[in-house]
Structure formats: structure tokens, C-alpha cells
Isocitrate dehydrogenase
Amino acid sequence: MTQTIAVIRGDGIGPEIMEATLHVLDAMQLGLRYEDVDAGMVALEKHGELLPASTLETIRKHGIALKSPLTTPVGEGFSSINVALRRHFDLYANVRPAKSFPNTKSRFGEGVDLITVRENTEGAYIGEGQMVSEDGQIATLTQKVTRHGSERIVRYAFELARRTGRRKVTVVHKANILKSTSGLFLKVAREVAQEYADIECNEMIVDNTCMQLVMRPEQFDIIVTTNLFGDIISDLCAGLVGGLGLAPGANIGADAAIFEAVHGSAPDIAGKGIANPCALLLAAAQMLDHIGKADAGNRIREAIVATLEAKDPALTPDLGGSGTTMSFAEAIARRVAG
Ligand code: NAI
Ligand code: MG
């Protein structure tokens, strides 16, 4: 069956890195079709809204979207489109792999190969129960953790471990202090872990996790955690492997999945043709894994590694090359096709 993918070209460097990514996908001749949909500033200009209903409908129809970064306008009345998409499709699992690449600026060598699985729909990010006292001196925030939400994310992490041959899941929490919310998450995680005797499970408090990640990142395989901790930890992990230019992420729900780069629309380099396309390309590789084309996903990852290993001059400046977004994509496309 031909898979059609909803493509969001996005703002800033978005269209440039999407063109590069589709160039590589086309070189592999996977029989994918694309349907362009608008979101972000482009959509605001064309349709008068940041996230048109037709965009949501197309994503729902195909179940898969590849998304470039969007600029969220600063100011009243604009809420994050990314958060809106996650809510709308109940994309509960935020999956962010971090694997060392050769010849990057990372100071952690090549021993990192881990995946953060972050709960994406509840925790501190529910946007409810926020209060600032009338005199502006006190602010409070409600967190929500549910058995259902915890169970499905922990199960996702263990299933991911089984599917990808990974051996260990680390449950990251702060149940010693946040006894209600983090406590419930940990309790449910322990129950779910019982069902996966073949996968090692350990528990780690979030602050210690941060230190351990920097001291001995190679001890981690899959990390599963709640929304706020996962947001912070996954950026830390991107830093372990060479930064935002190489960090992809997937937002996965039962009926839809959206694959994207972790970085933003980089207005400072937009239009210059020098954006590194790798993060979006690695997100496309995750997408291929998700639609049952893991061989093709691996080919993309291997081609990126080979291009970095060769110190190919086609690499973009952030990776020490003198190339452009498209020269980099062409260097990768030659390797995936060959
Ligand atoms: P950013 O990630 O766009 O840029 C941070 C720095 O990294 C900049 O110096 C940029 O030039 C560099 N950079 C980012 N991606 C790069 C790439 N592929 N190649 C080379 N260099 C790259 O973060 P910033 O500046 O905080 O946000 C800019 C806009 O992006 C904002 O409007 C923000 O709301 C939006 N944003 C959107 C996201 C999304 O749609 N998923 C995620 C994060 C931010
Ligand atoms: Mg974040």
C-alpha cells in the first residue's frame, strides 16, 4: 500500500530542510506520496489561522505527518501549535533518540545511544489550575498524572525496548518529593515492569539522572518519564550527541504520529541555505521505522554517519563543513541510493 504523508513545510528554515529531506527520501524510491498542508505563519497569511481545520483533517486521514519547525508568534492569543497538535491527536508519546555521531562538537565521544520516552499529554503541562494571586505575589500550578496516562507511556517504552532489541528501561521520577504525582507514575511503572521480565528495569530520581547522564551516559538505554522531566532530559541528551542539528523527535498517538526536528525555525539563518537538514532527516528515519520501513530508516542513519565520517566538505557549517543544506542532502542521497 502506498503511504501518503502530510507534509508541513513550516516557517524560517523549515521549507529548506524539508526540501532537502524529501530529496533524500525520493532518492530511496520508497513509493511515498506527499500531501502538503499549511500550519504556522504561512497558514496565518493564507487562511487567517495558524492551524486550519483542513490541515488537521489531512493529518487525520493519513495518520502520518512530517513537520518542519513552526514559528509561534509572540503575543496574546497565540498558543503553541505544537502543543495544539499534540492535544488534538492525543500524541501521548514523545520519543527522542540520542545517538552519538562521528566528528561532531560533542564532548562525550561515541558511547551514547539512548532514547527518551516522554509522556506528552499531562504532568505540569496541562495548562489548568494556574493561578497568580491578585497582588501578583503568589503563583500556583496544578499537575495531573493519571494511571491511564502513566500506564500507556510506560508500556510504550517497554514495547519499544522489545521491538528494537534494547535491554533496559530506566524510570525517571521524583517520587521522594512529589509523592502524589510522581509517586503514582512510579507505582504504575513498577506494575507494568512486572509484565516485561525480559527487559531490565531500574528507577532513578531525576536530579541524579541529570548527573549520571553527563558522567556516564553509556549506562542508559531507554528512559521513560513524565512530561516536564522528559522535556528537560531530552534536550540534555541532544547536547550529549552534538546538539540540536542532529536531534529528531516523534509525537506518537494511537491514530496519528507526527515526526519533527527538535530545533526551531532558526530565523537567524533562514533563507541562507546553510541549515543542517539532519534533524528532520533523522525524524524521517523514525517515521520510516514507524510505518514498517525500518530498513530504509537505517539506511538514512548509516548514510548520515558515513557523510560525517568522511568529513565531506558538503557538510553544513555547524558541522564544520563549507556546504549548503542541499549539498549536504545530495551527499546523503548519493549514499542512500548507492
Ligand atoms: P532554534 O532552534 O530555532 O534556534 C536556536 C539556534 O540553533 C539558532 O542559533 C539557530 O540558528 C540554530 N539552529 C537551529 N536549527 C538549526 C539547524 N537545522 N541547522 C543549523 N543551525 C540551527 O530556537 P529559537 O531561536 O529559540 O526559536 C526560533 C523559533 O522557533 C521560535 O519562534 C520558536 O517558537 C520556534 N520553535 C519551534 C519549534 C517547533 O516547531 N518544533 C521548536 C522550538 C522552537
Ligand atoms: Mg523542549
